[in-house]
Amino acid sequence: MKDYKLIFAVLTVALVWGTTFLAIRVAVETIPAWFVAGIRQFLAAVIMLFVLLSKKEFRWIGWKSLGYQIIFSSLMLVVANGMTTVAEETVSSSLASLISACSPILVFLGSVAVGLQKFSLRALGGVLMCFSGILFIFWDGLQDLANPDYRMGMIFLFCAISGWASGTIFTKKLNIQSGNITLNLFYQFLFAGIVQIGLAFLFSENYNFGNWTLKSISAMLYLAVFGSVAAFFAFHYALTKISPVQVSILAYINTIIAIFLGWLIMDEPISVKFILAAVLIICGVFIINYKPGMFKNGKTEALKAGTS
Fold first, then answer.
1. What is the pLDDT of residues 252-273, one digit of tens each?
2. What is the domain range of residue 48?
3. What is the 3-state secondary structure (H, E, C) of 101-130?
4. What positions does the domain EamA occupy (predicted)?
5. Mind listing the pLDDT tens digit for each residue in 53-82?
6. In total, how many domains does the chain have?
7. Assign residue 153 a region: left if phi > 0, alpha if psi is -120 to 50, beta otherwise?
8. Residue 299 resides in a domain
9. In a domain, 305, yes or no
Protein backbone atom coordinates (compact mmCIF):
# COMPACT_ATOMS: atom_id res chain seq x y z
CA MET A 1 0.00 0.00 0.00
CA LYS A 2 1.37 3.40 -0.98
CA ASP A 3 2.13 5.93 1.74
CA TYR A 4 0.49 9.00 0.23
CA LYS A 5 1.58 11.19 3.16
CA LEU A 6 5.20 10.25 2.45
CA ILE A 7 4.79 10.91 -1.27
CA PHE A 8 3.23 14.31 -0.52
CA ALA A 9 6.02 15.14 1.96
CA VAL A 10 8.75 14.21 -0.51
CA LEU A 11 7.12 16.21 -3.31
CA THR A 12 6.69 19.18 -0.96
CA VAL A 13 10.37 19.22 -0.03
CA ALA A 14 11.54 18.78 -3.62
CA LEU A 15 9.23 21.39 -5.14
CA VAL A 16 9.18 24.00 -2.37
CA TRP A 17 12.91 24.03 -1.66
CA GLY A 18 13.48 24.00 -5.41
CA THR A 19 11.47 27.22 -5.71
CA THR A 20 13.05 29.10 -2.80
CA PHE A 21 15.98 30.37 -4.86
CA LEU A 22 13.56 31.89 -7.37
CA ALA A 23 11.40 33.32 -4.56
CA ILE A 24 14.46 34.94 -2.97
CA ARG A 25 15.45 36.46 -6.30
CA VAL A 26 11.94 37.92 -6.71
CA ALA A 27 11.83 39.17 -3.11
CA VAL A 28 15.16 41.04 -3.27
CA GLU A 29 14.10 42.92 -6.41
CA THR A 30 12.57 45.65 -4.21
CA ILE A 31 13.23 44.53 -0.62
CA PRO A 32 16.77 44.70 0.88
CA ALA A 33 18.12 41.18 1.30
CA TRP A 34 18.62 41.25 5.08
CA PHE A 35 15.01 42.38 5.50
CA VAL A 36 13.86 39.46 3.33
CA ALA A 37 15.87 36.97 5.39
CA GLY A 38 14.99 38.53 8.77
CA ILE A 39 11.26 38.97 8.21
CA ARG A 40 11.10 35.46 6.73
CA GLN A 41 12.64 33.91 9.84
CA PHE A 42 10.68 36.09 12.25
CA LEU A 43 7.35 35.18 10.62
CA ALA A 44 8.38 31.52 10.69
CA ALA A 45 9.05 31.90 14.44
CA VAL A 46 5.57 33.39 14.95
CA ILE A 47 4.01 30.46 13.07
CA MET A 48 6.01 28.01 15.19
CA LEU A 49 4.86 29.81 18.35
CA PHE A 50 1.19 29.43 17.36
CA VAL A 51 1.77 25.72 16.67
CA LEU A 52 3.45 25.24 20.06
CA LEU A 53 0.75 27.16 21.95
CA SER A 54 -2.02 25.20 20.20
CA LYS A 55 -0.35 21.95 21.29
CA LYS A 56 0.51 23.38 24.75
CA GLU A 57 4.18 22.51 24.12
CA PHE A 58 5.75 25.95 24.48
CA ARG A 59 8.35 26.06 27.27
CA TRP A 60 11.79 27.31 28.22
CA ILE A 61 14.51 24.95 26.93
CA GLY A 62 17.29 25.94 29.33
CA TRP A 63 20.45 27.99 28.78
CA LYS A 64 22.60 25.09 27.55
CA SER A 65 20.09 24.04 24.91
CA LEU A 66 19.50 27.67 23.97
CA GLY A 67 23.24 28.06 23.42
CA TYR A 68 23.21 25.13 20.99
CA GLN A 69 20.21 26.58 19.15
CA ILE A 70 21.90 29.99 18.86
CA ILE A 71 25.09 28.49 17.43
CA PHE A 72 23.11 26.34 15.01
CA SER A 73 20.88 29.28 14.05
CA SER A 74 23.88 31.56 13.53
CA LEU A 75 25.54 29.13 11.13
CA MET A 76 22.53 27.68 9.28
CA LEU A 77 20.11 30.62 9.22
CA VAL A 78 21.99 33.88 9.80
CA VAL A 79 25.07 32.98 7.75
CA ALA A 80 23.90 30.30 5.29
CA ASN A 81 20.37 31.48 4.56
CA GLY A 82 21.08 35.16 5.11
CA MET A 83 24.16 35.37 2.91
CA THR A 84 22.51 33.35 0.15
CA THR A 85 19.72 35.92 0.19
CA VAL A 86 22.21 38.80 0.05
CA ALA A 87 24.12 37.10 -2.79
CA GLU A 88 20.98 36.87 -4.91
CA GLU A 89 20.85 40.64 -5.12
CA THR A 90 23.68 40.35 -7.66
CA VAL A 91 23.82 36.66 -8.61
CA SER A 92 21.18 34.69 -10.56
CA SER A 93 18.96 32.23 -8.71
CA SER A 94 20.18 29.33 -10.89
CA LEU A 95 23.84 30.06 -10.11
CA ALA A 96 23.05 30.48 -6.41
CA SER A 97 21.31 27.09 -6.35
CA LEU A 98 24.21 25.42 -8.15
CA ILE A 99 26.85 26.85 -5.79
CA SER A 100 24.67 25.87 -2.82
CA ALA A 101 24.60 22.31 -4.17
CA CYS A 102 28.34 22.19 -3.43
CA SER A 103 27.78 22.39 0.35
CA PRO A 104 27.97 18.57 0.77
CA ILE A 105 31.58 18.77 -0.46
CA LEU A 106 32.49 21.02 2.45
CA VAL A 107 30.47 18.85 4.83
CA PHE A 108 32.41 15.81 3.66
CA LEU A 109 35.85 17.49 3.80
CA GLY A 110 35.07 19.00 7.21
CA SER A 111 33.82 15.65 8.51
CA VAL A 112 37.07 14.02 7.39
CA ALA A 113 39.08 16.80 9.08
CA VAL A 114 37.36 16.32 12.47
CA GLY A 115 37.35 12.52 12.25
CA LEU A 116 33.64 11.98 11.60
CA GLN A 117 34.20 10.32 8.25
CA LYS A 118 36.94 8.41 6.45
CA PHE A 119 38.43 9.53 3.17
CA SER A 120 38.30 7.16 0.18
CA LEU A 121 39.32 7.11 -3.46
CA ARG A 122 35.64 7.11 -4.47
CA ALA A 123 35.04 10.23 -2.40
CA LEU A 124 38.16 11.83 -3.88
CA GLY A 125 36.72 11.21 -7.35
CA GLY A 126 33.46 12.87 -6.28
CA VAL A 127 35.28 15.90 -4.88
CA LEU A 128 37.36 16.31 -8.05
CA MET A 129 34.21 16.02 -10.15
CA CYS A 130 32.51 18.77 -8.12
CA PHE A 131 35.50 21.07 -8.41
CA SER A 132 35.56 20.42 -12.15
CA GLY A 133 31.96 21.61 -12.24
CA ILE A 134 32.91 24.78 -10.37
CA LEU A 135 35.67 25.44 -12.92
CA PHE A 136 33.11 25.18 -15.71
CA ILE A 137 30.96 27.78 -13.93
CA PHE A 138 33.80 30.29 -13.99
CA TRP A 139 35.07 29.33 -17.44
CA ASP A 140 32.87 31.89 -19.17
CA GLY A 141 32.22 34.06 -16.13
CA LEU A 142 35.78 34.73 -15.01
CA GLN A 143 35.64 38.26 -16.40
CA ASP A 144 32.46 38.84 -14.37
CA LEU A 145 34.57 38.68 -11.20
CA ALA A 146 35.92 42.09 -12.20
CA ASN A 147 32.46 43.40 -11.31
CA PRO A 148 32.67 44.14 -7.57
CA ASP A 149 28.94 43.43 -7.01
CA TYR A 150 29.16 40.03 -8.72
CA ARG A 151 32.40 39.27 -6.89
CA MET A 152 30.82 40.08 -3.52
CA GLY A 153 27.82 37.94 -4.44
CA MET A 154 30.08 34.95 -5.06
CA ILE A 155 31.96 35.58 -1.80
CA PHE A 156 28.64 35.66 0.07
CA LEU A 157 27.61 32.37 -1.57
CA PHE A 158 30.80 30.62 -0.53
CA CYS A 159 30.41 32.02 2.99
CA ALA A 160 26.84 30.68 2.94
CA ILE A 161 27.79 27.11 2.04
CA SER A 162 30.62 27.26 4.58
CA GLY A 163 28.10 28.25 7.24
CA TRP A 164 25.75 25.43 6.25
CA ALA A 165 28.58 22.90 6.29
CA SER A 166 29.84 24.14 9.67
CA GLY A 167 26.34 23.90 11.15
CA THR A 168 25.92 20.37 9.85
CA ILE A 169 29.30 19.25 11.21
CA PHE A 170 28.63 21.02 14.54
CA THR A 171 25.40 19.04 14.93
CA LYS A 172 27.06 15.74 13.99
CA LYS A 173 30.13 16.27 16.14
CA LEU A 174 28.22 17.10 19.32
CA ASN A 175 25.43 14.61 18.53
CA ILE A 176 22.90 17.16 19.78
CA GLN A 177 19.57 15.68 20.82
CA SER A 178 16.87 17.77 19.26
CA GLY A 179 13.97 16.87 21.59
CA ASN A 180 10.97 18.89 20.45
CA ILE A 181 11.92 19.93 16.91
CA THR A 182 9.22 22.59 16.68
CA LEU A 183 10.32 24.15 19.97
CA ASN A 184 13.97 24.26 18.90
CA LEU A 185 12.99 25.69 15.54
CA PHE A 186 11.06 28.48 17.23
CA TYR A 187 14.15 29.62 19.13
CA GLN A 188 16.34 29.26 16.02
CA PHE A 189 13.96 31.23 13.79
CA LEU A 190 13.38 33.89 16.46
CA PHE A 191 17.09 34.46 17.06
CA ALA A 192 17.89 34.56 13.33
CA GLY A 193 14.97 36.89 12.62
CA ILE A 194 15.99 39.42 15.29
CA VAL A 195 19.67 39.37 14.26
CA GLN A 196 18.94 39.65 10.53
CA ILE A 197 16.43 42.48 10.95
CA GLY A 198 19.07 44.26 13.02
CA LEU A 199 21.59 43.72 10.20
CA ALA A 200 18.99 45.02 7.74
CA PHE A 201 18.69 48.39 9.51
CA LEU A 202 22.48 48.50 9.91
CA PHE A 203 23.57 47.64 6.35
CA SER A 204 20.63 48.45 4.07
CA GLU A 205 21.32 51.76 2.33
CA ASN A 206 17.73 52.29 1.26
CA TYR A 207 14.90 50.53 3.06
CA ASN A 208 12.05 52.78 1.98
CA PHE A 209 9.10 50.51 2.80
CA GLY A 210 6.95 52.34 0.24
CA ASN A 211 9.10 50.91 -2.56
CA TRP A 212 8.39 47.32 -1.60
CA THR A 213 6.17 45.80 -4.30
CA LEU A 214 3.36 43.34 -3.68
CA LYS A 215 5.23 40.84 -5.84
CA SER A 216 8.31 40.96 -3.62
CA ILE A 217 6.28 40.92 -0.40
CA SER A 218 4.33 37.88 -1.65
CA ALA A 219 7.60 36.09 -2.42
CA MET A 220 8.87 36.88 1.08
CA LEU A 221 5.67 35.53 2.67
CA TYR A 222 5.98 32.40 0.50
CA LEU A 223 9.51 31.89 1.83
CA ALA A 224 8.30 32.19 5.44
CA VAL A 225 5.22 29.97 5.22
CA PHE A 226 6.35 27.36 2.72
CA GLY A 227 10.14 27.61 2.46
CA SER A 228 10.82 27.78 6.22
CA VAL A 229 7.84 26.05 7.87
CA ALA A 230 5.94 23.70 5.54
CA ALA A 231 9.00 22.27 3.79
CA PHE A 232 10.80 21.70 7.08
CA PHE A 233 7.91 19.76 8.59
CA ALA A 234 7.64 17.72 5.37
CA PHE A 235 11.39 17.09 5.48
CA HIS A 236 11.28 15.73 9.02
CA TYR A 237 8.21 13.63 8.30
CA ALA A 238 10.09 12.08 5.37
CA LEU A 239 13.01 11.36 7.71
CA THR A 240 10.74 9.21 9.88
CA LYS A 241 9.86 7.04 6.88
CA ILE A 242 13.01 6.80 4.76
CA SER A 243 16.74 7.12 5.36
CA PRO A 244 18.53 10.48 5.58
CA VAL A 245 20.61 9.61 2.51
CA GLN A 246 17.44 8.94 0.52
CA VAL A 247 16.02 12.29 1.60
CA SER A 248 19.30 14.00 0.70
CA ILE A 249 18.77 12.96 -2.91
CA LEU A 250 16.05 15.63 -2.98
CA ALA A 251 18.82 18.24 -2.92
CA TYR A 252 19.73 17.26 -6.47
CA ILE A 253 16.11 17.67 -7.57
CA ASN A 254 15.97 21.06 -5.84
CA THR A 255 18.92 22.27 -7.90
CA ILE A 256 17.41 21.10 -11.19
CA ILE A 257 14.07 22.76 -10.37
CA ALA A 258 15.79 26.01 -9.34
CA ILE A 259 17.83 26.16 -12.55
CA PHE A 260 14.78 25.40 -14.71
CA LEU A 261 12.60 28.02 -12.99
CA GLY A 262 15.33 30.65 -13.19
CA TRP A 263 15.52 30.08 -16.94
CA LEU A 264 11.75 29.85 -17.45
CA ILE A 265 10.54 32.75 -15.29
CA MET A 266 13.52 35.08 -14.84
CA ASP A 267 15.05 34.52 -18.30
CA GLU A 268 18.37 33.61 -16.70
CA PRO A 269 20.84 32.42 -19.38
CA ILE A 270 21.93 28.79 -19.23
CA SER A 271 24.91 27.84 -21.40
CA VAL A 272 26.12 24.37 -22.35
CA LYS A 273 29.02 24.81 -19.91
CA PHE A 274 26.56 25.71 -17.14
CA ILE A 275 24.56 22.53 -17.79
CA LEU A 276 27.79 20.49 -17.84
CA ALA A 277 28.80 22.12 -14.55
CA ALA A 278 25.44 21.17 -13.03
CA VAL A 279 25.83 17.55 -14.16
CA LEU A 280 29.38 17.33 -12.78
CA ILE A 281 28.47 18.87 -9.40
CA ILE A 282 25.31 16.80 -8.93
CA CYS A 283 27.08 13.57 -9.92
CA GLY A 284 30.07 14.43 -7.74
CA VAL A 285 27.89 15.07 -4.69
CA PHE A 286 25.99 11.84 -5.36
CA ILE A 287 29.25 9.86 -5.50
CA ILE A 288 30.42 11.39 -2.21
CA ASN A 289 27.11 10.53 -0.48
CA TYR A 290 26.60 7.13 -2.07
CA LYS A 291 26.41 4.16 0.25
CA PRO A 292 25.52 0.54 -0.51
CA GLY A 293 21.86 -0.02 0.24
CA MET A 294 21.06 3.69 0.28
CA PHE A 295 17.83 3.07 -1.61
CA LYS A 296 16.59 0.53 0.93
CA ASN A 297 14.14 1.58 3.61
CA GLY A 298 15.96 2.93 6.65
CA LYS A 299 13.34 4.02 9.16
CA THR A 300 15.43 3.17 12.22
CA GLU A 301 18.43 5.10 10.89
CA ALA A 302 16.17 7.98 9.95
CA LEU A 303 14.68 8.24 13.41
CA LYS A 304 18.17 8.31 14.88
CA ALA A 305 19.27 11.01 12.43
CA GLY A 306 16.17 13.06 13.14
CA THR A 307 17.33 13.53 16.72
CA SER A 308 20.91 14.52 15.94
1. 788 888 989 999 898 888 888 8
2. 4-291
3. CCHHHHHHHHHHHCCCCCCCHHHHHHHHHH
4. 7-138, 152-289
5. 999 999 999 998 899 899 989 998 999 999
6. 1
7. alpha
8. no
9. no
